[in-house]
Structure prediction request, 436 residues.
Amino acid sequence: MSEANKTEDKKSVQEKLTDLSELVGWFQGASFKLETALDKFKEAEALAEEIEKDLTKLKNDIKIVKKRFDSEA
Amino acid sequence: MDDVLLSVSDFVALTNQTLEYAYPTVQVEGEVAEFRVSQGKWVSFKLKDDGAVVNCFTALSQMRIPLEDGMRVVVVAAPRLNVKGYFNLNIRAVKPVGEGSIKKGFDLLKAKLEKEGLFALERKRSLPRVPKRVAVITSTESAAYADFVKIINERWGGLDVEVAHTQVQGVPAPDQIIRAIRYFNSLEVLPEVLVIIRGGGSAEDLSTFNDEPLVRAIAESRIPTLVGVGHEVDHTLADIISDVRAATPTNAAQILVPDRQEIIRGARAQASSVGYLLTQAIDSYSRQTKENLNAAFSRIQEKLDGTFEQLGVLRVAVAQLNPDNVLRRGYALLRGEQTIGATLEIETATNIITTEVQDVRSK
Prediction:
């Protein structure tokens, strides 16, 4: 796995969603360049796919607190 | 005991000992009368029904809900004979009963807290859109909790959820919930959201969530709170004072986390919109390039037209200067010396004539 991919994997879904929104913003903004647009488009597609994969496999970790609350202690 | 002589103090002590043994606590229902707060610290009132009346006494700090004369309540109390000879119920807990009294207690406390500004909108904190660490206070045996867990698992993943199991109705419930709130607020790393949930129930069941210390504990929580108690039509002070009110425990789960299917759809839509934007950009660039080429071509065409026009004019001018055209108009071209005896060549449009000069005169 490449270093770039490792970094991508460490990102949370929220961070990936932010990256995707930033990519959309880049396409709508002044920094848009046709020369790099295709790469950015591919990046956006890959991000959307990763987000879907991440969200599908993520499970919640639910723990019951051991402490009892029926008396002061 | 007939032969035992007691001092008054001993008698009072013995009576209290007997009472404590026989009735450690009693629950008595009646109507509040002559409600009074003395020195800002002590509460006294009479609890009465059609046939009898009993004095009740407690510290103001023990009161969980404001009382007023005429309210119907159940007191949990220890019967005591005080040193002045008055029989009292020393109150440990008091709760309104019956729809009217519960409503009255609710309105009184609501007005009190409202006056303190605790319901002000500017106090409300927003919840993170996607929290990572969540604390939940509820009865883990309830259907409401099962629904809540089902919905958050369906909607989202990757949450670290810590659940404090407490009673959610009955006299001990408010204090248990308060302890759980304090527990989560004392953690080194605070959860991002504190969720308090309870399913539907009678007005009396839900009155736990109209308990003044509990409502204040929710208001004081350092962790933003999300409270979903009862059904959509139920309103408790706990949910009114919370940062975000959920209509039901299920709704609390829906508010807490986004729906992963919606997010996936949104991400796909964003990627598609990028594709659309790219196509649009390519179209726009090619349109612009085409326009630029057309403009350049038009400019070249204009230049060519101008040059051809100029050439035409020049060609006419050159044509006019052509000697053949002059000859065709009847003129002749003369070559040779203009001296007597010299030979001259005369060129007309059709012939070349050779002749000799016989005379030369000045004009």
